[in-house]
Amino acid sequence: MKDKQIPSLAIALHGMDGRTYKTMVMYFQGPCKAAAVVVDDSEAAVAGMVDADTNTGKQLLHQWLAQPSLSRPLIVLSKDHWSQPELIVGEKPSRLNNLLAAFAAV
Question: What does the mean pLDDT of the chain come to?
Fold first, then answer.
């Protein structure tokens, strides 16, 4: 009997520098056991992810929240607490269980 493979969640990373981007790709493949996969094409993404602790990330987050209707869920990585109901918050430093719970919430 073959194991049924659960498809990976397609996530677009927003506003992350090259090093952080590569780190997230490896983290998704390694510890997350491919529960999610980074996609470059925002159209193919089921969810977005932003690091709200960077200047670029904060700007993107505020732009995202200013939209009248969100096109897809957004996972926010931050040391700070965000209480907007439309956001899925993953605390930093990222812990595996916390990140997997954020994926499951999408």
Answer: 85
- Tokens for 17? 């520098």
**Which residue type sits at 85?**
P
In one-letter notation, the amino acid at residue 100 is L
Rounded to whole angstroms, the Cα distance separating 7 from 10 reads 9
Give me the sign of the Cα torsion angle 90, 96, 101, 106.
positive
Q: Is the peptide bond before 93 cis (omega within 30 degrees of 0)?
A: yes
pLDDT, residue 66, reads 85
80 has pLDDT over 60: yes
Q: SS3 sequence, 50-103?
A: EECCCHHHHHHHHHHHHCCCCCCCEEEEECCCCCCCCEEEEECCCCHHHHHHHH
Model pTM score: 0.84
